[in-house]
């Protein structure tokens, strides 16, 4: 996948931007400079938003994202368009993906999406019929996922300052395991293994003839399921504790040193409070939107669908009514006819222009007869005016299917809500530390450490109990297998087969990953440069971890690496995964130097960025890629350079070619 162009309209600091991001084969880097607050991160967010969509919560959020220069515009609209090429099923395709956001009549943000794939169009939006919308959205999401799934994008479109966060405590093992399972394609086999095990148990239950045996087997399987749930809960609780320890580790270290400052505590409390309030606000907004969706489901979905199905018949009725109304425009009421006729005949008689014997009633009757002869009969006369208005409103009604966006919001909200208890615990700990001194924070932190050790013990016990149950269940499986049954025999073989496939795939790539990581770390990990003896990956994907070993023989603890070394380690890992994975995405890095020292910076310039990917987009300031030294090293590998300029007065970011006044030497 290579990004060719990004077009932005009315988004944050960008009123209008059309940026060429194509690269030459031998010059894979695009360098985009800008001062702090100049629009680099916004450009980064716009590319991600164009690919995966913006999560605009409400009208206030929409107005925050809308460029200030667009406020006085006749059409307040945010537009993001990305052009990229990628291979799907071996075929190179060009895609133009555009997302547009406006406020509807009710003041709610709505999204319209179009994807042009080599001339084939997929479009959906608020005016799209629900059935067509779902189909088009599925097709577009399928295409995006084939090039770079959203869950993996964080590993290739990332902020270097945040990368070292992945190495915190237990977060690393889970993050990297998930990354390996997804990027290297192992996850589907793990899921298939679990599904095969479940099917095997269900079929075994049907095969056990004796009622008592069947009951015992069912009870064993139920016990195992219960223990598995307890095990998952235990691991989740450990993860929550690790996240808690990680979040207050800095404050704990200060407290231990007796240097905890009130101002630092206050700032941390305010930050956490803001996060909690934001999650609660989002949950309330979601609940309100969900209620509105349910309350108006007939108006927004059923009625538009009914109108769509009956549109031809309703339009026919309205057309006939409209024609009759036009034809009857010249007809007059009987009283008006009588009054006008009387005045005209009287006037004519006074002027002796008309015979005195002319009868007014006969003239009126004649005019009425002529009117009636020119008017058609109304086949829909039984419909009154109110019913005609209702039919007109029905065919003109537009509906909004919010289900897909609501479901996406629900998934994101579930992740945030799962962290809410942790945030409350942090806040409570810090508030009580502020009131009662450092001792409270120290006690809480160390108590959490003890709880983790206890949970580890519970985890080991649960795993042992599950193994015992599996042995007893296996005895029944052996008994069942004594009688020939092709289906059961196949299901028994499937579970280890899928596990074996996942592990064999890992083993096949294991040596490549270990070897490439060792080479890269020996060049880039300055604190252990040339002294990484080996990188060791575990043999099983389900119990996956990575270990480093020094040439002296000891293990190098990942958690003990400094911030710069952690950033380097993660960036090396992401590079290796990219090169050996199932996807070929561009790499886009914001704040490229993060917390790196000079030696680490030099190593990245020479050994990392030039060979990182087929397309590498670097967003930086002059303090990160210095014009007098770093730029000179990178220039031979750069296809394009741009500088972002922030106009504070006009609240707008513009772009010019060149890197802070330096023209690229091609």
Could you describe the 3D structure shown?
The chain has helices spanning 40-52, 59-65, 130-147, 150-153, 160-163, 171-183, 187-207, 211-257, 262-295, 297-327, 334-350, 360-374, 385-396, 403-418, 420-436, 438-481, 486-524, 563-580, 598-608, 630-634, and strands spanning 2-11, 14-20, 29-34, 78-88, 91-103, 109-117, 120-124, 157-159, 532-537, 546-550, 555-556, 587-590, 616-620, 638-647, 652-657. The chain is an alpha/beta fold and 666 residues long. Among the domains are: 2-148 and 583-657, P-loop containing nucleotide triphosphate hydrolases (Rossmann fold, 3-Layer(aba) Sandwich), CATH 3.40.50; 299-394, no CATH class. The strands form three sheets. Strands 2-1-4-5-6-7 form a six-stranded antiparallel β-sheet. The chain has a six-stranded mixed β-sheet with strand order 8-12-13-3-14-15. Strands 9-10-11 form a three-stranded antiparallel β-sheet. Strand 10 and strand 11 form a beta hairpin. The longest helix has 47 residues, at 211-257. The protein is extended, with a radius of gyration of 35 Å. This is DNA sulfur modification protein DndD. InterPro entries: P-loop_NTPase (IPR027417), Rad50/SbcC_AAA (IPR038729). It comes from Phocaeicola coprophilus. Residues 189-265, 403-479 form a coiled coil.
């Amino acid at each position: 996948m290579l990004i060719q162009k990004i077009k932005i309209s009315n988004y944050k600091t960008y009123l209008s931007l059309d940026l060429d991001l194509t690269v030459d084969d031998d010059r894979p880097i695009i360098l985009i400079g800008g001062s702090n607050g100049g629009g680099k991160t916004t450009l980064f967010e716009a590319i991600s938003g164009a690919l995966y969509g913006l999560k605009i919560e409400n009208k206030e959020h929409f107005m925050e994202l809308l460029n200030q220069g667009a406020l006085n515009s006749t059409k307040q609209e945010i537009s993001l368009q990305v052009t990229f090429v990628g291979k799907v099923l071996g075929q190179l395709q060009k895609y133009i993906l555009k997302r547009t956001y406006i406020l509807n009549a009710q003041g709610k943000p709505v999204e319209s999406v179009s994807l042009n794939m080599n001339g084939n169009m997929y479009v959906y939006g608020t005016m799209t019929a629900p059935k067509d919308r779902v189909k088009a959205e599925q097709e577009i999401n399928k295409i995006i996922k084939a090039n770079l799934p959203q869950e993996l994008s964080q590993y290739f479109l990332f902020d270097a300052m945040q990368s070292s966060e992945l190495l915190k405590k237990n977060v690393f093992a889970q993050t990297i395991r998930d990354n390996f399972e997804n990027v290297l394609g192992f996850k589907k086999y793990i899921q298939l293994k679990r599904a095969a095990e479940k099917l095997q148990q269900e079929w075994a239950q049907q095969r056990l003839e004796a009622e008592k045996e069947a009951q015992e087997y069912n009870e064993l399987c139920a016990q195992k399921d219960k223990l598995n749930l307890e095990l998952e809960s235990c691991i989740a609780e450990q993860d929550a504790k690790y996240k808690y320890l990680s979040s207050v580790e800095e404050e704990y270290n200060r407290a231990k040193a007796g240097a905890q400052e009130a101002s630092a505590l206050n700032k941390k409390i305010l930050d956490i409070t803001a996060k909690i309030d934001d999650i609660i606000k989002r949950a309330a907004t979601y609940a309100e939107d969900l209620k509105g969706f349910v309350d108006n489901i007939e108006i927004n979905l059923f009625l538009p669908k009914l109108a769509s199905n009956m549109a031809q018949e309703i339009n026919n009725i309205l057309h006939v009514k409209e024609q009759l109304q036009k034809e009857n425009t010249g007809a007059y009421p009987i009283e008006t006819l009588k009054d006008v006729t009387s005045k005209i005949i009287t006037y004519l008689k006074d002027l002796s222009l008309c015979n005195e014997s002319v009868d007014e009633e006969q003239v009126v009757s004649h005019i009425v007869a002529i009117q009636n002869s020119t008017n058609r009969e109304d086949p829909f006369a039984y419909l009154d005016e109110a019913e005609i208005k209702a039919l007109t409103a029905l065919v003109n009604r537009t509906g909004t299917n919010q289900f897909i966006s609501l479901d996406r919001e629900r998934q994101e909200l579930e992740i945030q809500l799962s962290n809410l208890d942790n945030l409350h615990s942090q806040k409570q700990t810090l508030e009580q530390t502020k009131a009662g001194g450092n001792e409270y924070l120290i006690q809480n932190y160390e108590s959490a450490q003890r709880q983790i050790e206890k949970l580890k013990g519970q985890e080991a016990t649960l795993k042992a109990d599950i193994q015992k149950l599996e042995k007893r269940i296996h005895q029944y499986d052996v008994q069942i297998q004594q009688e020939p049954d092709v289906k059961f025999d196949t299901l028994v073989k499937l579970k280890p087969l899928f596990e074996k496939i996942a592990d064999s795939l890992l083993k096949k790539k294991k040596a490549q990953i270990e070897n490439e990581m060792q080479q890269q770390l020996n060049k880039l990990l300055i604190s252990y440069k040339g002294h990484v003896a080996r990188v060791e990956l575990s043999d099983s994907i389900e119990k996956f971890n990575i270990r480093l070993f020094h040439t002296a023989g000891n293990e190098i603890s990942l958690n003990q690496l400094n911030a710069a070394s952690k950033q380097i380690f993660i960036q090396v890992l992401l590079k290796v995964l990219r090169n050996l994975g199932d996807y070929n995405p561009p790499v886009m890095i914001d704040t490229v130097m993060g917390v790196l020292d000079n030696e680490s910076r030099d190593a990245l310039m020479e050994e990392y960025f030039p060979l990182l990917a087929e397309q590498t987009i670097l967003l930086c300031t002059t303090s990160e890629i210095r014009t007098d030294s770093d730029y000179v090293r990178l220039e031979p590998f750069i296809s394009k350079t741009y500088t972002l300029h922030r106009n504070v007065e006009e609240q707008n970011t513009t772009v010019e070619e060149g890197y802070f006044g330096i023209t690229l030497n091609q």
